[in-house]
């Protein structure tokens, strides 16, 4: 299963969701790969640690597609092991930014899809995306089977939701018939605050594909970032960890 987590708005928790769902998959014995397509490289840092530089990155992969080769290296060769069993990452690289113009000019939008179709030995692939509908997020949506949309109950997020879903549906129609919207996951939810609760109820009334499991706001998540340790490995009994476990189980049901 290849799952992309995407929203054009920043700050909605894409990286946290990618890394924690991937960590749960790995903890369940599934050989899991995270592909980090965001130039900021937050997923890479979260899973590898601050200052740890991967020998090969996703930028190396995309750069290799710009030159013709009869025998391209397999995508797995760009993966780096994390400190966690069954979990590897194809790390991001700042060079992604400078490569984008060349990749678009040479129409390399299907290269990630083709590489992931050939990959063997992984039970789950999670793709982190930049907060923009650019070459890399389009590549991810074309390569994935499912897309999960994080939503933070912000009014700007709500206003952008129609455009976001329309963009995903357009990519599905034009490039990837197999892509399914898994649902909208409400992140950093504060059930006692009136605005988030009202927004959630309104989205339900509008028939949005809202997932039942929400993810709470907690300082434990920030601690997880600081320690570069996903929640399931940091504190398996914490409330937010249990929410992630419930979300994972619902998605895999």
Gist?
With 253 residues, the protein is an alpha/beta fold.
- The total count of strands amounts to 7
Poorly predicted runs of 5 or more residues: none
Category from helices, strands and their pairing: alpha/beta
User: What's the tally of helices?
Assistant: 11
| Distance between the ends | 13 Å
Within the largest sheet, what's the order of strands? 3-4-2-5-1-6-7
Mean pLDDT: 93
Helix content: 40-55%
Radius of gyration, in Å, reads 18 Å
Proportion of strand residues: 5-15%
Shape: globular
Q: What does the main sheet amount to?
A: 7 strands, mixed
Spell out the helices and strands N to C.
EHEHHEEHHEHEHEHHHH
Walk me through this protein's architecture:
It is a single chain. By secondary structure, this protein is an alpha/beta fold. Strand 6, helix 7 and strand 7 form a beta-alpha-beta unit. Strands 3-4-2-5-1-6-7 form a seven-stranded mixed sheet, sandwiched between helices. Helix 1 runs parallel beside helix 2 and helix 1 packs across helix 11. It is 46% helix and 13% strand.
Name a few traits of the molecule.
7-stranded mixed beta sheet, single chain, 11 helices, 253 residues, alpha/beta, globular
Topology (elements, then pairings):
Elements: E1 2-5, H1 14-27, E2 32-36, H2 42-48, H3 58-65, E3 80-81, E4 87-90, H4 95-105, H5 111-118, E5 124-128, H6 135-143, E6 146-151, H7 155-175, E7 180-186, H8 194-205, H9 219-227, H10 231-234, H11 239-252
Parallel strand pairs: 1-5, 1-6, 2-4, 2-5, 6-7
Antiparallel strand pairs: 3-4
Helix pairs in contact: 1-2, 1-11, 3-4, 5-6
């Amino acid at each position: 299963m290849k799952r992309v987590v995407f929203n054009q708005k920043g700050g909605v928790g894409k990286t946290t969701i990618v890394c924690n769902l991937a960590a749960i998959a790995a903890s369940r014995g599934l050989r899991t790969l995270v592909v980090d397509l965001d130039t900021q490289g937050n997923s890479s840092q979260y899973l590898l640690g601050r200052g740890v530089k991967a020998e090969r990155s996703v930028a190396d992969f995309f750069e290799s597609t710009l030159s013709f080769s009869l025998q391209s290296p397999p995508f797995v060769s760009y993966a780096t092991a994390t400190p966690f069993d069954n979990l590897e990452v194809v790390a991001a690289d700042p060079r992604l930014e400078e490569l984008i113009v060349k990749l678009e000019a040479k129409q390399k939008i299907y290269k990630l899809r083709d590489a992931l179709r050939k990959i063997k030995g992984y039970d789950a692939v999670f793709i982190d995306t930049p907060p923009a509908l650019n070459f890399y997020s389009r590549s991810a949506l074309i390569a994935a089977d499912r897309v999960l949309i994080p939503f933070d109950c912000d009014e700007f997020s709500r206003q952008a939701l129609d455009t976001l879903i329309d963009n995903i549906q357009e990519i599905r129609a034009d490039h990837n018939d197999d892509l399914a919207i898994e649902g909208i996951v409400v992140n950093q939810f504060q059930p006692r605050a009136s605005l988030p609760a009202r927004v959630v109820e309104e989205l339900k009334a509008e028939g949005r594909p809202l997932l039942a499991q929400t993810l709470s706001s907690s300082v434990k998540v920030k601690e997880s970032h600081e320690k570069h340790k996903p929640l399931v490995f940091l504190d398996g009994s914490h409330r937010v960890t249990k929410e992630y476990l419930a979300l994972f189980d619902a998605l895999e049901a």
